[in-house]
Amino acid sequence: MAMTEYNPPREPWVDIVFEDQHILVANKPSGLLSVPGRLAEHYDSIWSRLVETYPDIQVVHRLDMDTSGLMLFAKHKEAERSLKKQFQYRLTHKVYYARVWGHPEQQSGQVDLPLIGDWPNRPKQKVCYQDGKPSQTLYQVVKQEEKTAIVRLLPITGRSHQLRVHMQALGHPIVGDEFYSEGEAFEFSERLELHAAELSFYHPDSELLQTIFVPCDFYLEADSVIFNYFNPVKELPDYKKLPRP
């Protein structure tokens, strides 16, 4: 499944949430690529917009094009190495909000389903117990609506499309999802209602734990909750005990 038409939002051009001499955090809108695609017409991305002002900016993780929310960037190579190591060792924690179709039976829980690329239907992913990679997501229902529910999601692993496939596997796909929802669930929203609201990481210079939050446009009641609501969540490992970048 290739991108048929790419019309990314242009306002605001870039929404910077936090910045210092080492890192930059931007709020990526839904519909904008994280990095340029292979074709020239897919060059526009959050990275390509930032590099106009910050020529040394480095991508350390990505969001799906249709997912909105926080993206963390490094301003120099030393910061890039530090942050990429944190993602590699799962030292970062992220919290997402999503609107899903229907009402999950359990108000909270963990989805533990291995995922693998669905190659004939790229870029879709699928559950595969034989060859899939381990994938876990914690979820919590925070609001019941007439036909939908708002869920708070904490991915323990970071597989491609993990949250989207895990919610579909529960029988409650994220609304507006062109890959994993259909019928009323797809038509309910003009966008994928999935938002990366909160990100915790160790600052590459001070090595102090830092948490950044950005509001959710489709659920205004979203709040900063990463260490308050998800239990049990293991403590973040001691960054200072890891091999130096």
TrEMBL record:
Domain Pseudouridine synthase RsuA/RluA-like per the UniProt entry, residue ranges: 22-169
Active-site residues per Swiss-Prot or TrEMBL entry: 64
Listed GO MF terms: 23S rRNA pseudouridine(746) synthase activity; RNA binding; tRNA pseudouridine(32) synthase activity
Keywords noted in UniProt: Isomerase, rRNA processing, tRNA processing
Catalytic activity: a uridine in RNA = a pseudouridine in RNA; uridine(746) in 23S rRNA = pseudouridine(746) in 23S rRNA; uridine(32) in tRNA = pseudouridine(32) in tRNA
One protein family per Pfam: PseudoU_synth_2
SUPFAM superfamilies cross-referenced by the UniProt entry: Pseudouridine synthase (SSF55120)
Keyword tRNA processing: yes
CDD domains reported for this sequence: PseudoU_synth_RluA_like
GO biological process: enzyme-directed rRNA pseudouridine synthesis; tRNA processing
Source species, domain of life: Bacteria
EC number: 5.4.99.-
Record-linked InterPro entries: PsdUridine_synth_cat_dom_sf, PsdUridine_synth_RluA-like_CS, PsdUridine_synth_RluC/D, PsdUridine_synth_RsuA/RluA, RluA_PseudoU_synthase
Function: Dual specificity enzyme that catalyzes the synthesis of pseudouridine from uracil-746 in 23S ribosomal RNA and from uracil-32 in the anticodon stem and loop of transfer RNAs.
Similarity section: Belongs to the pseudouridine synthase RluA family.
PANTHER family: DUAL-SPECIFICITY RNA PSEUDOURIDINE SYNTHASE RLUA (PTHR21600:SF91), MITOCHONDRIAL RNA PSEUDOURIDINE SYNTHASE (PTHR21600)
Protein name: Pseudouridine synthase
